[in-house]
Structure formats: C-alpha cells, structure tokens
Design a protein that fits this description.
This protein is mainly alpha-helical. It has one domain: Orthogonal Bundle (Endonuclease III, domain 1). Helices cover 56% and strands 3% of the residues. Strands 1-2 form a two-stranded antiparallel ribbon. The termini are far apart.
Length: 230
C-alpha cells in the first residue's frame, strides 16, 4: 500500500529531527506554563535567558504575588510585551491559588481559562507536562503546514490544528508538534528556507516558487519607454 503524503512528510521530518523536543527550560508544569506565556512573540532562546534567573527568584505562585507588579516587570523586561505579560502572570498565579490550590490544572478547558493562556499554551502544557497528546500550532507549525499542503493557505490557526489532528495519528501528535517546530525553526525558515536542500520540496509550492525565481530571474523589457519586469 502506497504511503500517504502526510505519512511521507511525517517520516521525513522524523529522520531529520528524531530528537525534537520542547526547548523551553522548565522543571515542572508551573514553570512550563510561565515560560510558554512569556514565549508569545518572543524566541525560546530569549525566554530561557530570562527564566534562568526568574525561576530562581520565583518558585511558587505566592512568590510572584509577593512583589509589586513593577518589580516583576523589571525581571522580565527583556521579553516582548513584558508589561502585559507581568499582569497576566500575577493574575494567573492569583487564580491558581484561588481555584486550584496553587497547582496547574491538567485539563485543557481549565488551562485556557487562566489569564494569558490561550489554546496554544494549553496544548503545550498538557502535552509536555502531563503527557496528553496535543498539537500546538505556533508560527512555525502554521507556516510549515501551509507550505507543505497539510493545511490551506488561508486556514486559521484553529483550522490548521484541526486538520493536523485529523491527518496525524493521535499517538504522534506531540512529537509531530516538536518536529514541525524544529523543521520550521532550523530548515524551513520564514525568510531564508533551505529549499535547495529540502527532501520535501516536491510537496511545497512555496519552495518550488522560490527556486523557480532563482533559476529564472526577472527579465527586463521596454514598454512605452518604461522598464517592465515580466
């Protein structure tokens, strides 16, 4: 039986990144939740630099609430949108203490109710902290899925997630999430993807378009005294 396009893609990225994993440093579900919250519109590398000292100073939800908001803002000021994220962290910690005895809930529907925690963050937490299969769609997963035709170019993030969940076997959801991130972060980059070396080029309209542009550069022609690119 001939393997499906999805199966070929999954097997290929598995060969390229067999050890793909969550690159946010953490030692428990609470730290992971804080780290993922901080990672919105920010690189994992920057988050890890900040949390290296942040997680030494703040161990529990109570610790984040024991300091003025301005102090927490300064502690994470290297992170994009740090003021808003500081507010969300304190509100999240207050809710954890009020409703969950200071523990991060395991249920996805409870996680998304926490301040600053959206569907992507909840998926990362349940899959990496609690071992529940999930596919979190970040910018890398979205870009790669659309380029390889696993999702439509105009699909929303939620539509991308649903299509991946339908096409990828459930037991592979979490690992596929990590591998798609690694593939997008280190190979199929937004600005300078490695199309010439890509083993999945035949499935990628974006890659074919980029290579065609490189091999057939724009020609200039004259039309009514003006230079026109064709």
């Amino acid at each position: 039986m001939k393997p499906t396009k999805t199966r070929i893609i999954l097997d290929q990225i598995a060969k390229m990144y067999p050890d793909a994993h969550c690159e946010l440093h953490h030692s428990n579900p609470f730290e992971l939740t804080i780290a993922v919250l901080l990672s919105a519109q920010c690189t994992d590398e920057t988050v890890n630099k900040v949390t290296a000292t942040l997680f030494q100073k703040y161990k529990r939800p109570e610790d984040y609430l024991a300091v003025p908001l301005e102090e927490l803002e300064q502690d994470i000021r290297r992170i994009g949108l740090y003021r808003n994220k500081a507010k969300n962290i304190q509100a999240l910690c207050a809710l954890l203490l009020d409703k969950y005895d200071g523990e991060v809930p395991r249920e996805h529907e409870k996680l998304v109710e926490l301040p600053g925690v959206g569907r992507k963050t909840a998926n990362v937490v349940v899959s990496n902290a609690f071992g529940v299969p999930a596919i979190a769609v970040d910018t890398h997963v979205e870009r790669v899925s659309k380029r390889l035709g696993l999702a439509g170019e105009k699909d929303s993030v939620l539509e991308v997630e649903k299509k991946l969940m339908k096409k990828v076997p459930r037991e592979e959801w979490t690992q596929t999430h990590h591998r798609l991130i690694f593939f997008g972060r280190y190979h199929c980059k937004a600005q300078n993807p490695k199309c010439e070396l890509c083993p999945l080029l035949e499935y990628c309209r974006e890659g074919k378009k980029r290579l065609k542009t490189k091999t057939n550069p724009s020609r200039k022609s004259m039309s009514k005294g003006k230079t026109v690119k064709v």
